[in-house]
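note to self — DONT lose this again. spent like an hour looking for the file last time. sequence + predicted structure for the chain T wanted, 314 res
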Amino acid sequence: PEREAIVWNEMRFSYGQLNGLSNRVANALVEMGIGRGDKVALSCPNLPFFPIVYYGILKAGAAVVPLNVLFKPREVAYHLQDSDAKAVFVFEGTPELPLAKCVKEGFDQVDSCENLIVMTIDPTAPCMFDDCKTLTQITYDKPETFETVATKPEDTCAILYTSGTTGQPKGAELTHLNLVTNITTTYGIHLPVLDFTDGKQKTVLITLPLFHTTGQTVQMNTNMYAGNRVVLLPRFDPLTILQTMEKEKINFWVGVPTMYWALLKYVEDHGFDLKTIAENMKVCTSGGAPMPVEVMKAFERVFGVRVLEGYGLS
């Protein structure tokens, strides 16, 4: 429990703290009458709020419906309505991305979704809407213990929306068994390159959005299962990524081909010293689009690590 679980900037949450905070969320959901079989939406960039609320929803026996943070109000309304979400948690946002304002507009159009909870950067801040509550308001007086609701393997765990070629996006209902097998398989793929004798906790860097299946399952859930450290970055910036890889001694990273190209270009243009990164990086994975062979070979040569290509579906 004292080992680090989530790292964001200078904020560090241990596994014990993450568990306690998620238990508070679960207790608050039960008080709202939300439990096994219910759906709860979550709109949040790569911030500690995401895993805290995500696991709180699962502990309560409900299913998580992660929303794309770039959705417009009508898209938010569609997803809340279609998934039959009873509540939605939303990060307050920034001047460039007024997330809560946008989600509130969509929420107001859906009668079946009864609760909107705003996650504020300042935990003591009041809610920006008169008719809603903040995460602090619903959790401050809740205990940090919770008996996780027992679910069946075939119960829905997460609903990930995926847009087909025609019509509206469709919710892929992933069961607990779907996700557990996905996680254990992904974990198994990493085993050949891990040294279990060094006694060191391994570290993953997540730059892909947590609302998407890759960031959420292949990275966050798999590394939580492994007991690793999860370092979160909300937006892609080559220098920030390289500095984070160096500072946090990152072992695993997943990116799309354009991210690999951008890192290579930055190193080439600015002569960034990769010694520390190369010493610690064990597995780099690419997905989302086919990786150009020349980019893959250049990255392997410059960073000293093989790039694995992954392919999957929501």
